[in-house]
From TrEMBL, chain A:
<dbReference type="Pfam" id="PF03401">
    <property type="entry name" value="TctC"/>
</dbReference>
<keyword id="KW-0675">Receptor</keyword>
<dbReference type="InterPro" id="IPR006311">
    <property type="entry name" value="TAT_signal"/>
</dbReference>
<keyword id="KW-0732">Signal</keyword>
<feature type="signal peptide">
    <location>
        <begin position="1"/>
        <end position="26"/>
    </location>
</feature>
<comment type="similarity">
    <text>Belongs to the UPF0065 (bug) family.</text>
</comment>
<protein>
    <submittedName>
        <fullName>Tripartite-type tricarboxylate transporter receptor subunit TctC</fullName>
    </submittedName>
</protein>
<dbReference type="InterPro" id="IPR005064">
    <property type="entry name" value="BUG"/>
</dbReference>
<dbReference type="InterPro" id="IPR042100">
    <property type="entry name" value="Bug_dom1"/>
</dbReference>
Automatic annotation (TrEMBL), chain B:
<feature type="transmembrane region" description="Helical">
    <location>
        <begin position="260"/>
        <end position="282"/>
    </location>
</feature>
<keyword id="KW-0812">Transmembrane</keyword>
<keyword id="KW-0472">Membrane</keyword>
<feature type="domain" description="DUF112">
    <location>
        <begin position="20"/>
        <end position="438"/>
    </location>
</feature>
<feature type="transmembrane region" description="Helical">
    <location>
        <begin position="356"/>
        <end position="382"/>
    </location>
</feature>
<dbReference type="Pfam" id="PF01970">
    <property type="entry name" value="TctA"/>
</dbReference>
<feature type="transmembrane region" description="Helical">
    <location>
        <begin position="108"/>
        <end position="135"/>
    </location>
</feature>
<feature type="transmembrane region" description="Helical">
    <location>
        <begin position="470"/>
        <end position="490"/>
    </location>
</feature>
<dbReference type="InterPro" id="IPR002823">
    <property type="entry name" value="DUF112_TM"/>
</dbReference>
Length: 327, 497
């Protein structure tokens, strides 16, 4: 911890010489180091994303930011620990979509109510998923894939990173909209899903672009479509799924990552953080770093994030209903 | 570029002063955190991660890797001297290392472990350089059915080791399997035996289990006897050195262990744990005097230590050539590379050969450094045993708490290690072998997951285990092993009548 803090201090000191866009707050906030809780281990994608944002943020706020990695339960433990530490007034967090949207349905004894306990700050970035198959898969394109899957129920097996994960729910949403039944095989990481696809244990998987693209470049995988509304910058040639191969025009499934605070955080603190994060996200260098990791900078007001949470909770809630209804 | 040419190019990268110094720093740091109970490579690498922003990618990776394999050397020290393994793979080293230390031959045990570690690593490097192309296929050739069959073989083969009574050994394996069920079921997402504790949703912390069962229970057990046994006498240099018959027992078990370790290490998963248990079981089986195992057999240290060090080297193959990390530490290493804009995976050997071969060459340099560093340190480590218990034990407990907390920053785990320590003490009073519990705990969830996954993918057809050639070999080997054991039992029964 000491080392992390020291590194944060060093980063802060180096960058504090630059300018701060922060409007001076009445009570002189922040007057002590901030703690940002991340529900994933150091070195993981959500952790790297948090570091990309908090490093310039610390410089702008003039206070070091300590990343608190509290991994477990799909990111839920990070949120719980942030709420646990909120009394200090310096606890914030970054989270993926799961703990804000599907966790209330999937995690018993969640210990928090998203609507009551969380103050949305800013959407940091979004990422589509890509439908990946082995390079020698008989499915030439999205239409071909759907045709294969339609041949008989469970003709196609797909991998996900666990029941209730974004990869699983996206595949179920896709099955519903495309009118197919696929066999779900849960794994625990994209690395395992990749191995299984390349080794022909399963036929396909909805994957994070960062996890799939290098295998495409190496000629071991192909991707048949992206789940975002617009084409993905790193793979402009891959078609979006919405409106293609018989899928509805509003087909959309995105993972996201957001900055959150405990409810009760002063509104001026929330809006100050939101303003700074939007400035950081507008920086082309930051945008490029995010794209390299498979993410697209998002930004917007706290309300944008709040709306996103409500909408996605509804979308994924419907998918969960469909899964629960299965025999 | 062939493997050996690449290796030579890599040597050029490592021997740059700006890189070499980080290699030295990494292995020295790795040794020390390996010695400290519980604080392992995982915690150290996550703490070092932010610092690597300021280093070149080569220096960063070589340093972090040095911490990783350096900690394997250090891990054996606490296992031998204090019966305190930080990880399951060094748990095997306690079986014979700790009895040797108790006989006043800790120096010999440490010498054996260090030299076997070195031999194992060098063997692993040789395999990596010569066969990295072939090895990288192993990871994708193994399907769920193959993993399940392989781990069942590992469990069956190892279930009989270190056992005083076979029934007691089996009981421990089963208890381990049951404890391994705690957490979220991968297939259904159901919480099993978590009793509403979110902290348990990812299962019991492995480090907490290992430290509790071995270290904490040992501390509790020694409280009664500590004042009476007093401080061991000062060890003379002559007693640190192995006798000729000790030396004769070292090379072949180490080579066999290294071979197993190199193979299993290349498979993502728990290759190194399986290889250390399996190589121990194997040595016991081929030994002319298996009764010495568990009382301080040199082979019982040499084989597993060579195996886990060889596995630590070949574990880099799937990580670097496929981008598929075999364990959480490798996943962290992968993250470190991504921070530096290096994407490990199928493209790495072509895109960044200097990085790949620089790392491989650093293994060679690093292990040489570790041997040079550690042999003179043996005397110092042994003198640690002369620290009075009333100072040593509280210090150990503090390090255990720090170490367990460092894994995932969870206070819950500190209470868990205390509870597990008490339970472990009760088990040791009843003469149960906690190593087998640990093995069941590690392999159980993997067997379950892969077994169910294999059946899911085969749409419920159990013949998949015999149709896949790799799996079939493991199934037959398991059947053969059970048949051998049964035949032995029958023969002994007949001799009695």
């Amino acid at each position: 911890m000491t080392l992390t803090r020291r590194a944060a201090l060093m980063g802060a000191a180096a960058l504090a010489l630059g300018t701060s866009a922060l409007p001076v707050l009445a009570e002189g906030w922040p007057d002590q180091p901030l703690h940002v809780f991340v529900g994933f281990p150091a070195g993981s994608s959500p952790d790297l994303l948090a570091r990309i944002i908090t490093e310039p943020l610390a410089a702008k706020l003039g206070q070091p930011i300590v990343i608190e990695n509290k991994p477990g339960a799909g990111g839920v433990i990070g949120v719980q620990q942030m709420l646990h530490a909120k009394a200090a007034g310096t606890a914030f967090g970054t989270t993926i979509n799961g703990p804000m949207t599907t966790a209330p349905r999937l995690t018993p004894d969640l210990g928090y109510d998203v609507a009551k306990d969380i103050a949305p700050v800013a959407l940091i970035a979004t990422s589509p998923l890509v439908l990946a198959v082995a390079a020698d898969s008989p499915a030439e394109d999205l239409a071909g894939f759907i045709a294969l899957a339609k041949a008989e129920p469970e003709a196609v097996a797909y991998g996900s990173v666990g029941k209730g994960s974004g990869a699983h729910l996206t595949a179920e949403l896709f099955s519903d909209r495309a009118g197919v039944e696929m066999l779900h095989v849960p794994y625990t990481s994209y690395a395992e899903v990749t191995t299984a696809i390349i080794g022909h244990e399963i036929d396909a998987g909805f994957m994070a672009p960062s996890a799939a693209l290098q295998y495409v470049a190496a000629g071991k995988m192909r991707i048949l479509g992206v789940t975002s509304v617009k084409p993905f910058p790193q793979t402009p040639e891959v078609p979006v799924m919405a409106g293609h191969a018989g899928l509805p025009a509003d087909f959309r499934a995105e993972l996201w990552n957001a900055f959150i605070a405990p409810a009760g955080t002063p509104p001026e603190v929330v809006s100050a953080l939101n303003a700074e994060i939007n400035v950081i996200l507008a920086d082309p260098a930051v945008q490029q770093k995010l794209i390299d990791m498979g993410w697209q900078a998002a930004g917007g007001t706290p309300e944008t994030l709040a709306t996103r949470i409500t909408e996605d909770t509804a979308i994924w809630g419907a998918v969960l209903d469909r899964i629960d209804a299965k025999p | 570029m062939t493997g050996w040419e690449g290796f030579l190019h890599g040597l050029a990268t490592v021997t740059q002063p700006g890189v070499l110094v980080y290699c030295v720093f990494g292995v020295v740091l790795g040794t020390f955190v390996g010695v400290l109970p519980g604080i392992g490579a995982m915690a150290t690498i996550s703490l070092l991660l932010p610092i690597t922003y300021y280093l070149s990618p080569e220096a960063a990776l070589i340093m972090l890797a040095g911490v990783y394999y350096g900690s394997q050397y250090g891990g054996a020290v606490a296992s031998i001297l204090l019966r305190l393994p930080g990880t399951p793979q060094s748990a095997v080293t306690t079986f014979d290392g700790y009895p040797l230390a108790r006989q006043g031959r800790a120096g010999v045990a440490l010498f054996t472990s260090m030299s076997a570690s070195f031999l194992g690593s060098m063997f692993g490097i040789g395999v990596l350089v010569a066969l990295s192309g072939v090895l990288s296929h192993a990871a994708t050739a193994f399907g769920a059915a193959d993993y399940a069959a392989m781990m069942i073989l590992g469990l069956v083969a190892a279930s009989t080791i270190g056992a005083t009574a076979p029934a007691k050994g089996l009981a421990m394996v089963v208890l381990g399997l049951i404890l391994g069920c705690i957490g979220t079921d991968v297939n259904s997402g159901t919480q099993r035996f978590t009793f509403g504790q979110t902290e348990l949703s990812d299962g019991i912390n492995l480090v907490a289990l290992a430290m509790g069962l071995f270290g904490v229970s040992e501390v509790i057990g020694n409280i009664r006897t500590a004042e009476r046994t007093g401080v061991p006498p000062k060890v003379r240099l002559r007693e640190l050195l192995p006798r000729r018959e000790d030396l004769a027992r070292l090379p072949f078990p180490a080579l066999r262990g290294a071979t197993m370790g190199s193979f299993f290490g290349a498979l993502p998963g728990t290759g190194s744990t399986i290889s250390s248990f399996l190589s121990y079981a194997f040595e016991r089986r081929v030994s002319r005097s298996p009764e010495r195992f568990g009382t301080g057999a040199i082979e019982g240290i040499a084989a597993p230590e060579a195996a886990n060090n060889a596995a630590a080297i070949t574990a880099f193959v799937p990580t670097l050539t496929l981008g598929i990390p075999g364990d959480p530490i490798m996943a962290l290493m992968l993250g470190a590379l991504v921070i530096h804009g290096v994407q490990p995976g199928p493209m790495m050997l072509e895109a960044r050969p200097e990085m790949f071969w620089g790392l491989v060459a650093s293994f060679g340099i690093g292990n040489l450094l570790l041997l040079i560093l550690n042999l003179p340190l043996i005397g110092i480590w042994v003198s640690m045993l002369r620290i009075p218990f009333r100072w040593l034990y509280p210090a150990i407990l503090i390090f255990v708490c720090l170490g367990v907390y460092s894994v995932r920053a969870s206070v819950f785990d500190i209470f868990a290690v205390a509870g597990i320590g008490l339970a472990g003490y009760a088990l040791s009073l009843a003469r149960f072998n906690p190593g087998l519990l640990l093995l069941g705990f590690v392999l159980g969830p993997l067997i379950e997951t892969n077994l169910r996954r294999a059946l899911l993918v085969s749409r419920g057809d159990p013949m998949v285990f015999l149709e896949r050639p790799i799996s079939a070999v493991f199934v037959l080997a398991t059947a053969g092993l059970i048949a051998l054991s049964l035949a032995g039992v029958l023969r002994r029964a007949r001799q009695k009548t």
